[in-house]
Write a structure and sequence with these properties.
The protein is mainly alpha-helical. It has one domain. Strands 1-2 form a two-stranded antiparallel sheet. Helix 3 crosses helix 13, helix 9 runs antiparallel to helix 12 and helix 15 runs antiparallel to helix 16. The longest helix is centred in the first third of the chain and has 44 residues.
Length: 430
């Protein structure tokens, strides 16, 4: 823990750095926050970090952005939560908006494919490096490793629903602790957690109530003003619903949105959805920022009396607003209660079991990212839904660049990202 309270200026500086480097989807972003907040800054202990992560994994919406909000709230109350969570999404908002405007006006941008290719290689190296460190610290008992492995296999082989995995792990940990069976507790460390007291719970609840109004009142106003079939009303309602029902993190949300936006609303084609996902994967910020691209294209193609690019920009910003306003609400409403649970053995056992399962979930995300980056084709392990890479379709350049990025990590994160971007650009240009 920090020897002195963290100032708002320092909080802003550190989370601005995290925001600018937060590539690679939730696995990479959680790994980055762990590296900066636990290893470098030592603002929170390993157990405090995992406790916060476990709670965020239970919520609908992007877990990495909610984790940033939670830690910011721990450091500086509601103001710290807004700063940390807000900074986490701002670079992504700006980058995806700029790319959306270019995409709508000129089509895809192959000129930057090489840079994005190298960036993915660097992010892949970061994810596996951080996953290894996290697993070594968080999985110190046989029970922990078993829970983590079962969670990974359930996702990888069976495509099990994420909520089912969380409920199963939590129930096992809860009843195991009640019965006196050794619970899969997170690794202890020598940082005294008591140096950080939970911020003012009443202030957090008030902020949550205000956020509920700021989220729902504009949605209702749009529907009343323009009718439920107007594109902006549909964007507001659809993404608000998505923010409530998509448990299981960013990938669960993307699956739901892709199906609805392409098949039900016909806002964009499947290939365009993949282009948007590529934008979100290779720009800083939450992977779920692809929703801004979906909102942009929906309004761009149904602009009415507005100039299409202006309508698209407004649609993208509206989708972003109704997606992330609830994320702050869930943290401010629930974090004060979750902090109190750290002293309850049975509930701590449940959260700890979920934490062990979360390591398996992150491992699954890392493998998913790796196989889709390193291999150009996959096959299904019938009768199971598991997708395995086609070894013959290995991308040798992607593998070589990823291994080089792994070696470069010893020189720091920023040099590794710059090396990846430069090398990827050169490899694709030759």
């Amino acid at each position: 823990m920090p020897a002195e309270p963290v100032s708002l200026v320092e909080l802003t500086r550190v989370f601005a750095r995290i925001a600018l480097l937060s590539f690679g989807g939730p696995a990479g972003q959680i790994a980055l926050m762990h590296r900066v907040l636990v290893d470098e800054q030592k603002w929170v202990s390993e157990r405090r970090f995992l406790h916060a992560l476990n709670f965020c994994m239970l919520l609908p919406g992007p877990e990495a952005q909610q984790l940033a909000t939670y830690v910011g709230w721990l450091m500086h109350g509601v103001a710290g939560g807004f700063i940390a969570g807000g900074l986490f999404i701002l670079p992504g908002v700006a980058a995806v908006m700029a790319l959306s405007l270019v995409y709508a006006a000129y089509g895809a941008t192959p000129a930057i494919d090489g840079a994005f290719f190298g960036l993915k290689a660097a992010v892949l190296a970061l994810v596996f490096s951080a996953l290894w460190r996290l697993a070594k610290r968080a999985l110190t008992t046989t029970t922990q490793r078993t829970v983590s492995a079962l969670a990974f296999l359930a996702l990888f082989l069976l495509d099990a629903p994420f909520p089912l995995i969380v409920i199963g792990a939590g129930a096992a940990g809860f009843f195991g602790a009640r019965l006196g069976v050794a619970a899969p507790l997170p690794a202890r460390d020598d940082l005294p957690e008591e140096e950080i007291a939970a911020p003012d719970a009443r202030q957090a609840r008030l902020a949550a109530a205000i956020l509920a109004g700021l989220w729902l009142i504009p949605v209702g106003a749009l529907v009343l003003a323009f009718g439920p079939k107007d594109v902006f009303s549909r964007i507001a309602i659809f993404f608000s619903k998505m923010a409530v029902v998509t448990f299981g993190g960013a990938y669960a949300a993307l699956s739901y949105v892709a199906q609805q936006a392409v098949e039900r609303f016909h806002w964009l084609a499947p290939a365009e959805m993949l282009d948007g996902l590529g934008m979100a994967e290779t720009t800083p910020g939450p992977l779920i920022m692809v929703l801004q691209f979906v909102g942009f294209m929906a309004a761009y193609r149904n602009a009415g009396a507005l100039p299409p690019l202006l309508a698209g920009a407004l649609g993208g910003l509206l989708a972003t607003y109704v997606t992330f306003a609830p994320c702050f609400l869930w943290i401010f409403a629930g974090a004060p209660y979750v902090e109190r649970l750290r002293g309850n053995r049975a509930l701590a056992g449940a959260m700890s079991a979920i934490g062990a399962a979360v390591v398996g979930v992150i491992a699954h995300l890392a493998i998913w990212f790796a196989t889709h980056f390193l291999f150009r084709a996959h096959w299904t392990l019938t009768p199971l839904p598991a997708q395995l890479p086609d070894i013959a379709a290995l991308d040798a350049k992607a593998l070589a660049l990823s291994l080089a990025a792994g070696l470069a990590l010893r020189f720091g994160l920023a040099p590794t990202l710059l090396l990846g971007v430069g090398a990827g650009f050169l490899m694709k240009s030759i």
